[in-house]
Amino acid sequence: MTQLTNTQASSNTQFSSEAVTPNTPIVLTIAGSDSGGGAGIQADIKAMSATGSFACSVITAITSQNTQGVSAIFPIPLDHVASQLDAVFTDLNIVAVKVGMLADSEIIKVVAEKIRQYQPQHLVIDPVMVATSGDLLLEDSAISTLKRELIPLADIITPNLPEGAALTGKSVPESETEMQDMIDDLRALDAKAVLLKGGHLEKDENSNDLLILPQSSALISAKRFPTKNTHGTGCTLSSAIASFLAQGNTLEQAVHLGKQYITHAIAHADELQVGQGHGPVNHFYAGHADVS
């Protein structure tokens, strides 16, 4: 385990204030749509744009959702998921792909097939499997398909603690030590790297994530901010990592930059007034380019 790395939030950090240029890398998000705009495809596009990449999308499901919860999910027909993937891959120079919500085994198989066909340079998978309530969003068969078909293709997967437990069959970690006890089981999933997110350990002063590489691991720490507005944090972090990978950063650099970005976005979340429940993070905390 390498020494703990501190990532401090500062309002002076700027990620992307320049206009998009022809050399801006293209990043694809494959995920569900959040009608409330705080998570899913909408959060992914905001995060990729705010961190300096051009975002395109393939929608796998349409959710009826707001800051208070999800009331309905409509999976997109398989042939249309496939046609969306063909459309973007055959025209756009997609450097990195972020995968989020995949509703069932059949959609997972379609996405895995297209990833193998088009072979993007980078693949980040946020295994969206467990709702905030703790309910599983994927059946056991779909989790098995995800582990067999898609995760071994990934440069990095970014499970939170309940998702890490669902992937490994272990109990949800309740401490940093128990997170480290999960390392071997997560390595066995055969992704090139794993970022096990410790945000659920709310009693800890800092928000600590565990970056697991084939031969080493490192704890990445950031200040924890007392806010209820954390909707879409996982989507945002994984999208930022994909964006930074597309820009030529190493995996470790992309993870550290992504952690820094989500920390700032959470730190500034209360500047927004969105909805009556758990609001979104502030993707554009760094301000907007002057268009006057």
TrEMBL record:
InterPro entries: HMP/HMP-P_kinase_dom (IPR004399), PM/HMP-P_kinase-1 (IPR013749), Ribokinase-like (IPR029056)
Record CDD domains: HMPP_kinase
Domain Pyridoxamine kinase/Phosphomethylpyrimidine kinase per the UniProt entry, residue ranges: 34-282
Swiss-Prot/TrEMBL GO biological process terms: thiamine biosynthetic process
One GO molecular-function entry: hydroxymethylpyrimidine kinase activity
Entry keyword Nucleotide-binding: yes
Superkingdom of origin: Bacteria
Any GO CC annotation of this UniProt entry: cytosol
Pfam families xref list: Phos_pyr_kin
Entry keyword Transferase: yes
Pathway in which this enzyme or protein is active: Cofactor biosynthesis; thiamine diphosphate biosynthesis
EC number of the protein: 2.7.1.49
Keyword tags: ATP-binding, Kinase, Nucleotide-binding, Transferase
EC category name: transferase
Protein name according to UniProt: hydroxymethylpyrimidine kinase
Organism: Vibrio amylolyticus
Gene: thiD
